[in-house]
Amino acid sequence: APTPALKVMEWIRNTLGNDHATFEVSSESLAILYAKMKQSQAATKAAANTLAAIKEARSEYRSETERLQRLLKAFGVSTGDKFLSKSGTTSLSHLSRLANNLALNDVSVGSYMMAIQDQCDRLDAVKLQEIQARGLKHRLEAQLAETSSKIGSIERKCEDWEADKPEVLQNMETKKAAVETYFAAKSNEYKTQIANNKAAMVKAGYRPELEHSALVKTAERVELER
Fold it and tell me: Distance between alpha carbon 202 and the CA centroid of its chain, in Å?
């Protein structure tokens, strides 16, 4: 394996591009140069990595720019070989999202206009539905208010009836007692009249066998005997 001294000499030769470097070779000078070599190699590697990353990013940016330029051409906008500005990129991004939201198959101006008109028509339909819903809501609220008023009136009448119920029941009981008393008196009066009439009939020669029911039974018996 190469010794540290050989590595230092190789590094100096590659760095300077020749073999004419002269210096005092000692353990101390070799240690210093070896440390510088490691630092230089680390810095060179870091710079190479940074440069590679920059080249890769430039390639990605160029590919994205070319893609955006192709999209712009679809809109009829040409930028030539110029890159898009930040505002141009933002506008294109908005147009792209709008095309996705509108579910467009192409990005022509006519497609945008037709899709936007469809959205306006839908918005008008939604507004009309909202107006109709508000009208229905107002009608239902009016009907509810009217129904609530009627219910309130019925409840008040029920409350009034409940308040008057004891008095009404008392009046009914009073009238019932009066009617019963009246009919009891009439019943006694009719019974007295019947008894008096029977007594008058007996006095005048009335016989039980002359009653209508007795005569009917006698007629039925005679009919059977025939």
Answer: 99
Distance from C-alpha of 151 to C-alpha of 153, rounded to nearest angstrom: 5
CB 78 within 8 A of CB 72: yes
Nearest-angstrom CA–CA distance, 167 and 156: 18
Mean pLDDT by 10 residues, the chain (226 residues): 78 76 77 87 89 85 73 61 61 68 65 74 87 88 88 86 84 86 86 79 61 70 74
Give buried/exposed letters for 136-156 (b at 16+ CB in 10 A, else e): eeeeeeeeeeeeeeeeeeeee
Flag whether the pTM goes above 0.70: no
Yes or no: say if 112 and 102 are a contact pair by the CB < 8 Å rule: yes
**Is there a contact between 73 and 93 (Cβ–Cβ < 8 Å)?**
no
